[in-house]
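Researcher: Sequence recovery benchmark, item below. Answer with residues only.
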């Protein structure tokens, strides 16, 4: 099944959510690691819960709601200044080291896209900050349908925008739940294994397993 388009998840795949860790350490010291983990876990949970409840909120608002939850849970201070600073930095997450060089090579052979739960403005800010705008033909956001991945309607956005069949699209993500969702929908899927966390036991396995985006060049 020939690949025509490569579609990338954003956070954890192209952009490093852990690039906020140093700033969190400046504010919260030894509790920064625990805060970061709880914040990320709740951020994902809220997207799933709000989709199930049909009570949509933009990803940017969920990100701040879950930051407040995590700080309250851990009894950490969160004033307006800290909250605004973290929100600003979240819009400017650093891309992983290999991203630009890999996209440069892939762009000569394929059309490229991003498909993310994040709001369009968040995605545009991250892409602009890392000087990646010219690489992508499409930047697709779940915000356009007020639902979050892994709902099949979100993956359908890639099919509709690119005018390609699902089997001719390769979707790359570091998130195991996203891998399962995309494979269940019918996309070809590459799991970018950036951590030691194993695949979810949902019956949908990726077509490829890679540990660095550069491995896409050899597939």
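Model:
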């Amino acid at each position: 099944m020939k690949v025509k388009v490569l579609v990338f998840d954003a956070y954890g795949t192209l952009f490093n959510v852990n690039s906020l860790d140093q700033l969190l350490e400046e504010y919260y010291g030894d509790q920064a690691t625990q805060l970061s983990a709880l914040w990320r876990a709740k951020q994902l949970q809220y997207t799933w819960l709000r989709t199930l409840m049909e009570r949509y909120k933009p990803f940017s608002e969920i990100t701040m709601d879950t930051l407040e939850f995590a700080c309250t849970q851990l009894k950490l201070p969160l004033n307006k200044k800290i909250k605004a600073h973290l929100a600003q930095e979240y819009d400017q997450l650093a891309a992983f080291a290999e991203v630009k060089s890999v996209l440069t090579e892939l762009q000569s052979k394929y059309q490229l896209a991003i498909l993310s739960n994040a709001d369009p403005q968040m995605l545009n800010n991250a892409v602009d900050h890392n000087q990646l705008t010219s690489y992508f033909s499409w930047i697709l956001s779940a915000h356009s349908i007020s639902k979050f991945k892994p709902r099949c309607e979100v993956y359908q956005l890639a099919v509709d925008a690119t005018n390609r069949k699902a089997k001719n699209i390769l979707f790359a993500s570091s998130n195991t739940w996203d891998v399962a969702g995309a494979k269940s929908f019918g996309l070809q899927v590459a799991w970018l294994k950036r951590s030691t966390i194993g695949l979810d036991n949902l019956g949908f396995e990726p077509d490829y397993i890679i540990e660095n985006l550069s491995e896409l060049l050899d597939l």
